[in-house]
Amino acid sequence: xxRGEWAARTDDLARASHNGVIRVSTLVQLGVPxxxxxxxxxxxxxxxxLLPGIIMLSNGQPTPRQRVEAALLHGGPDAVVTGVEAARRxxxxxxxxxxxxxxxxxxxxxxxxxxxxxxxxxxxxxxPVVRNGIRVAPLDRAVLDAVRRWRRIDPVxxxxxxxxxxxxxxxxxxxxxxxxxxxxxxxxxxxxxHELELGLRSVAETHGLAVxxxxxxxxxxxNVPVHDAKGAFVAMPDAWWDDVALAWEIDSYDxxxxxxxxxxxxxxxxxxxxxx
Length: 276
Known about the structure:
Order of helices and strands: HEHHEEHEHEEEEHHHHHEEEEEHHH
Distance between the termini: 73 Å
Mean pLDDT: 84
Strand order of the largest sheet: 1-3-2
Protein name: Transcriptional regulator, AbiEi antitoxin, Type IV TA system
Number of helices: 13
Low-confidence stretches: 259-263, 271-276
Structural class: alpha+beta
Number of domains: 3
Shape: elongated
Helix content: 25-40%
Number of strands: 13
Organism: Kutzneria buriramensis
């Protein structure tokens, strides 16, 4: 496309973009002078500047997908989305609102963080999986990269417990993954993984564990299956004292129960569970 012709062929610009996000250098190749791109990104202009050398071909607020596209263009062809954004694309719900797009790139590449694009160089670059056309880290790496940046323990517990409770990762594998990546920010997730290895599966249960430790009660088993005298599965209570057949159940249904393994009578109501 010759210079000056692009204004009449804006569809070509859209087709060359990633959901409306494009490099200035790509626009130059399509005949749009770089000074024109910068001018059109000025306040009141029809385009919007997102990251260095990357613009959006409209002037509204970028969508989450457009922020991810811009971040990946900034990170380069080997960049992999991780952390909160990747965990969200894996279906996790216990996540904060965060416009930052955390990416991993090979250690020998030199791309700096900019704006909402957080770039982390690593010698342990995971093999990406594709979620809706976006290269993301596997779930175990994604959740660990998310919680390594958090400073409060309950959100760390919530996200890691959700991933484990869904049966998509196991605490031992998460611990191995944590041992293989950056030690920065690993203290809280390591503590939580030790709790998960004990059988705890929710924030409420960890608070319950603290109460139990102060109570003087004998040792309990956490989240173990309970069977009746005929061997039929009854439930999987939060804590179980086998010597006295005492079950302790904490109502944290949203992400505490596994619907596949918890019988309907136990999942229904506190009154119903009392009769189960």
